[in-house]
Amino acid sequence: MDSYAGCSAVITGGASGIGLATAREFARRGARLMLADVNRAALDAAVADLRGAGADVRGVVCDVRRLDDVVALADAAFDEFGSVHVVFNNAGIAYAGPIAETSHDDWRFVLDVDLWGPIHGVEAFLPRLIAQQDPAHIAFTASFAGLMPNAGLGPYCVAKYGVVALAETLSREVRANGIGVTVLCPMIVETDLMANSRRVRGDEYGAGAPVGDLPAISTDPEVTAERVAELMADGILTNQLYVIPHSAARGSIRRRFERIDRTFDEQAAAGWTH
Ligand code: NAD
């Protein structure tokens, strides 16, 4: 892909935050859009807003926890567009709390949305992207928490590490099919993530169960959802595997890999010979 002009893009979690900002950015660059979200009211408002700005956009209510919903989304996208050029698996929630206090329902909630959601996106879209003649790109929103352990974000880290692994593995496997892969790994970005997470959780995983509060991590005010959307749109065109918008992430990622690397020296010092 070398431009968005005339391309078609599907964005999950497109009614708010990073997904909606990316929809605006793709539309500005000439893409046709299909937004998917579990929140019908927000989706209708987002579609009306984008149409008002001249975008060619449709909304599909879709809960990424349900494979049937995501398959129906893929059906709708291929019916509408013929070919799909970008699939952005972005829908997600956050949950904060120490692992020792995390219930089985908490684990299910986080993994259902944040890990099964992107897996469903791959299951529903990948065979058809491979079969179509046009070039395509699969993008994911993981998190900095998909690259680094964050105390207090255990289930979220497990899910987002899984999304990073999915993207990294997929990028090796589908390169020969002309399909690019990008995974977005931001630190904190100002959105309605926690309020939306509480609403999405509902009563399905235990009535009134909380989603916690994100740890107070200072963040870069210049890295807005709009800036992340620009970086993502560029990253897809240049086929970047990783988009990591916050430069503050660099030191801790380096230290994690140095810690892993040091393990070999420690093992050698302990007399390991293999
Ligand atoms: P947001 O709440 O503004 O947007 C997320 C959208 O996803 C919402 O419209 C919500 O209704 C939708 N959604 C949630 N569960 C869904 C489901 N089961 N099916 C379909 N749609 C669903 O939040 P955001 O910050 O824009 O989040 C987007 C992605 O970015 C998420 O995957 C989140 O984990 C990730 N992320 C966010 C931050 C941050 O600080 N905001 C940091 C790192 C990663």
TrEMBL record:
GO terms for molecular function: oxidoreductase activity. Residues 7-187 form the Ketoreductase domain. GO terms for cellular component: membrane. SMART domains: PKS_KR. Gene3D superfamilies: NAD(P)-binding Rossmann-like Domain. Belongs to the short-chain dehydrogenases/reductases (SDR) family. This is Short-chain dehydrogenase.
